[in-house]
Amino acid sequence: MAKAGFWKSDWLLGVIVTLLMLVAGASDLLQSLERKAYDMAVQASSRTPSERIAVIAIDDQSIANLGRWPWSRELHARMTDLLAGVKVKVIGNTVLFSEPQLDPGYAYVTRLIEIVNQSVGDDAAPSAEVEKIAGVLAEAEAALNTDRTLADSYGKAGNVLLPLVFELGEAHGQPDKALPNFVLQNKLTLLATGDGFALPAFALQAPIELIGSKAQALGHLNSSLDVDGAVRSEPLVIQYFDQFYPSFALMIAARSINLSPEDTKVRLGHEVRLGKLRIPTDSATRMNTFFYKSNEGRPAFQVDSFFDVLSGKIQASKYAGKIVLIGATAAGVGASQVTPVSPSMAPVLTLAHTVSSILQEHFFVTPAWANWASLGVFFLVALYLVLLLPRLSAAIGAGVTLGLLLLLIGAHFGLMLGAGLWIQLMGAASLLLEVGNRRILFSGDLGRPDDVLMLPPELPPEADVVLIESTYGDRIHPIDNLAQELAPALTRVAARGGSAVVPVFAVGRAQALLHTIAELKAAGAIPHHLPVYLDSPMAIHTSGLYAQHLGEHRLTAKQCQTMEHTATMTRTPDESKAIAHQHGPKVILSASGMATGGRVLHHLANHLPDHRNMVILTGYQAPGTRGALLASGVPTLRMHGQDIPVRAEVVQLQAASAHADGNQLMTWLQTLPTPPSNVFVVHGDDGAADQLRQRINHELHWPATVPEHGATWAV
Q1: Is the pLDDT assigned to residue 7 strictly greater than 50?
Q2: Domain 482-652 classified CATH 3.40.50.10890?
Q3: Domain definitions of the chain by residue range
Q4: pTM above threshold 0.70
């Protein structure tokens, strides 16, 4: 009996829970909880953004008035001349001019100039007619060479900064070729190494030399995504082989106070200094950016339409002496970012927050001792749970536990709001929640038990309260599997000589389709020679991870290898654009999955007008997205400022979704060891959530609720 009592003792339970939570501390779930607490503190903070920063937005209005994106570079030149004329301090243009922009008629004009020059002898004077023709051709050549026009504009302004974009990842060996001098002159030289590092890169895209050489400075525009995909920090330095390059925001801030890369002092993993400005960093030399709250629904920074400024509706004189950032906010032009203050922020606005953070020294600091402090608090809470809590009565124990929880939450907010310090304390807070009187279970996104790639969802543990997702709570997946749905569609489009554009989510959906296509080819269910392209850098990188994590999914090592070799991987923008020149049937898998942005947009623009082609939608399409519009049968789809006719066949696969359906959600709930006291149905459209609630009430006879936004419940 004593032995049985030992295993049931409260202090042993505390030890076991502590060890489990310690192991789980690095999991995405707890790290996401830390980030959620971080975001709440950011939203509660109140600081004023720099009034020196203004944004000129390439918005939907500008594209509607100035034409389809990308624009002629003559428009950028006109804007630059306008701003230079009123003496702005710095112009940061986020557009990456990485390819020449030549009008189709330019080659003919230059050939005509050569012919005219050859028709006149070395010593002979041209006739009046020839001279007149030569003059017109010279004017045409100057007008059509928009790269030179923009370069001349940047050279005259002398204060334009342009971005670089690196391919992040470990660099091996030596670079394929040396970087041009106009890039090299931006590398950092005042750099001290130590126990820190900078994010590594193995390749980069730079502006073409004609334009890039006229920029005052260059800086990288790479983002550092957190564990939940949000942007909270700025990698101030990136390492490219043995060279180190500053971020675009850092260079804009430096040039605005008349400093250059040579004046920028870096101590890797500790700090960056711009004159008297000191920017503390984490071990990867990243700054925790301060994101400013919006003002009554308006962006924190002054944002004007590119068209309004260029047309004179807004006077350019208002920007005199300011830092002007130019970038896209229009739907479909670039990808938006999740930040602590917005679920969809344009990168140029993220840049504005970052530059303001640097110049005003507004940021949250994670000190070197932060990890030790987090661990220390965790073990103090663990000692309380193991040694003190078992000796307290239920009422006193609940009160003390609640008090400690409130103390930890208060310390988190107090440190962030009062001292600008971010110490991760949610692990310790979670430990208190775990051994309290109630257990709360979050289902997360539940997968399908018959998923092509992933293993079935784990059985749920015992819980007092359950929060369950309801994405497909009102529907039942068809009996047909993904291969049975996909094969007829691909066979049909290939037979008529068309191409299939498949918007995919880069993680999971892309790999499921690649594996299914490989299986269909091997079985002879679709043409073996049908070309397949995977046009998403993130999807390409993710596909390679499956072979490194065997046992965490259904695929064997051979199947992972076959999946990767099924498609041509297009990593660079040039390779992506070249797909359009590949004639004949083909399959293009490209992100994003709901066609809200990404490379898939230019594939849709190229293929939607042709009735031979097909768009294959591979799962849930949220209301308002281009994917949902295509599924509803719209005759045109607006992209890049134009209404593209939809003549291609649109097919929506029902078996491709990774979410569990209504029956599968109910089956998962039924595996709970004991009925919970309440079930909250969340993460679904109103109709789907309510139908699942009704099934839980009627079939399981459990209390279930669809909570309203902002409602408070005692659990």
Answers
A1: no
A2: yes
A3: 2-46+366-434, 64-98+157-361, 107-144, 448-476+659-705, 482-652
A4: no
